[in-house]
Amino acid sequence: xxxxxxxxxxxxxxxxxxxxxxxxxxxxxxxxxxxxxxxxxxxxxxxxxxxxxxxxxxxxxxxxxxxxxxxxxxxxxxxxxxxxxxxxxxxxxxxxxxxxxxxxxxxxxxxxxxxxxxxxxxxxxxxxxxxxxxxxxxxxxxxxxxxxxxxxxxxxxxxxxxxxxxxxxxxxxxxxxxxxxxxxxxxxxxxxxxxxxxxxxxxxxxxxxxxxxxxxxxxxxxxxxxxxxxxxxxxxxxxxxxxxxxxxxxxxxxxxxxxxxxxxxxxxxxxxxxxxxxxxxxxxxxxxxxxxxxxxxxxxxxxxxxxxxxxxxxxxxxxxxxxxxxxxxxxxxxxxxxxxxxxxxxxxxxxxxxxxxxxxxxxxxxxxxxxxxxxxxxxxxxxxxxxxxxxxxxxxxxxxxxxxxxxxxxxxxxxxxxxxxxxxxxxxxxxxxxxxxxxxxxxxxxxxxxxxxxxxxxxxxxxxxxxxxx
Length: 470
Ligand SMILES: *[C@@H]1O[C@H](CO)[C@@H](O)[C@H](O)[C@H]1NC(C)=O
Ligand SMILES: *[C@@H]1O[C@H](CO)[C@@H](O)[C@H](O)[C@H]1NC(C)=O
Ligand SMILES: *[C@@H]1O[C@H](CO)[C@@H](O)[C@H](O)[C@H]1NC(C)=O
Ligand SMILES: *[C@@H]1O[C@H](CO)[C@@H](O)[C@H](O)[C@H]1NC(C)=O
Hints:
32% strand, 2 domains, binds 2-acetamido-2-deoxy-beta-D-glucopyranose, Neuraminidase, Olfac-like_dom
């Protein structure tokens, strides 16, 4: 990189003559920084040539040989340049850095422009037209900034994130679930009841981490009313079994269960990693052992399929667990479900450790687990205690005290809007929340509260809606 940089710098880097002025007993002089600014245009052109492979392999070979001969000379030059730039490190920061960053932003924008173009060609409507316009405008802004030096990187990054999210929302969740599907026309969640179920886990209070719930697929055959518990029996981190009860009564009495062997050991690639699981239809979906993958264990065939989550530096092994107050071991990646299907919640280095939401789809014909869309939020994952999805909206909680958590944040994947003014308290029996998930079949929320299993009834209100209030 440094080499390339050097090649592109102006050929003569003459010393600059500046005149000084005596002021308040010090010598003050202005330095013209233009000569050190990064020649973005030339860098782009070179990169283009390399990537489009316009050069034949032979001439590339020649260049490599030439380069290796010139290497010592270049190294000396770099040393010389570095020494001379040393007193002007701040320029490095203000000039080189921002130009490079702007260049990268420009690249990302072009990608978004291409994506939106693709969507637009399939789905020409007012929303995609508006998006195309916005991207065009932002591209112009970035170009102008490269010239004018009035740069607000934060604003541009935020605009870029907004556009990316909007493009994902445009890709559309198969049917217009807000319009046609009656479950999701009720606005945001407005209240959460006191616990309607409270039970000590069948594995006892000493197993403090895991997940539990009710079959989450509306039209699932055999398993319609089944309840399940997925305990993390090894170090409160790893699990390899799923316990299923056919009825609520059996679950409450802890009788007549069936155990499924999800993985042969606690260190197998298919082992359940962290409190992450959801039973949906005939399969258990969960975060798989020490990976950036989501696994799907089929209860009928005992087979496991997996998909790798998208993003730069997907966090696992306690890189980005839920951490508000206490960190919950290995809660980096989890699966959630709502009226629209399955979701993965996690965080990436690329999104600065903020929560990322991906839509998961089981393609039963191709027998593959797919990620179809991904949104980036602005909420730092380690600053929340847990999260769940309902009607395409992500809800996040924080710790209030040993006996209460609170839903305080919502992010709507349909619009990319966020709201952090919610205050919906959740009563707890114990301090730690290992997992929290919503069930679309009965609108209940399930909490694995250290060794206790709690369920709540959620209600929704049209007055409580980001679309109406903002
Ligand atoms: C800085 O130098 C560039 C060319 O090297 C010149 O075009 C520009 O006018 C100079 N700026 C100032 C403020 O002197
Ligand atoms: C760098 O090179 C220039 C000439 O190209 C020379 O005058 C100067 O002394 C060198 N500086 C250092 C620190 O080596
Ligand atoms: C909201 O939930 C609380 C319990 O958390 C309950 O006491 C209250 O009655 C509920 N309010 C409504 C309007 O349902
Ligand atoms: C899922 O991914 C597979 C392989 O990448 C692809 O063949 C299939 O069409 C995808 N299915 C859907 C519904 O996107």
